[in-house]
Amino acid sequence: MKRFAAVLATLAVLGLGAGPATPAHVVAPRPVPSPTPAREDFWARFLAEVEIVKVPPPKPEPDPAAARRIFDMSNRERRLRHIPELTWWPAALKPAARAQTDRMVYRQKLYHNPKLRSLLYSLHIETIGENVGVGLSIDGIQKAFMRSREHRENILDREYSLCAVWVVREPGSRMWVTVVFGTAL
User: Fold this and answer.
1) At 153, which helix (H) or strand (E)?
2) CB atoms closer than 10 angstroms to residue 17
């Protein structure tokens, strides 16, 4: 009988016996400790000693190999149609192609150079045209150029003989492209 009473007492403690009992699986919430002066002092000292530095985002980098690839793909399209190839145009790289690409990257906006015609005199050329693009790959950007009537016309225009290309790659992200076409005087 003593054993039976002990078993009943154990079951009651566990909440398995008869009568009102709290289930054993219910756990009372732990009280949240209030901040102590020692804990507050630790964080105050920690924050006073830590220098918070704002890290600038990675800087976009020029990609000359990608620029050359756009140039080569444009000439391939011209060769397929028996159009004379474009000549690499270093004089237009900085004032036209690079300047426009840098402006687009800075503003994070794709747009044509509104002052493109003003470069005619300074670059000693007769006509000028421009393709701008942004995308994840050079192949994708060139395909988009060829699907667009206006961009394709620039690439295949028989009057254009010069070409400058500037490509900037954002780390792990997009590529910004400016292609400038010209006709020598």
Assistant:
1) helix 149-156
2) 13
**C-alpha to C-alpha distance for 64 and 61, rounded to whole angstroms:** 10
CA distance 147 to 126: 27
Name residues whose C-beta falls within 8 Å of residue 122's C-beta, 6 or more positions apart in sequence. 95
Q: Which residue has the tokens 């270093």?
A: 90
| Both tokens assigned to 175 | 């590529």
Place of tokens 């009651």: 12
Using CA atoms, how far residue 145 sits from 18, 27, 35, 164, in Å, is 82, 66, 63, 15
Q: What is the pLDDT of residues 139-148, one digit of tens each?
A: 999 999 999 9
Cα Rg of the chain, angstroms:
35
Residues 6+ apart with CB under 8 A from 164: 88, 89, 90, 91, 92, 93, 96, 97, 179, 180, 182
Residues 113-139: pLDDT tens digits? 999 999 988 889 999 999 999 999 999
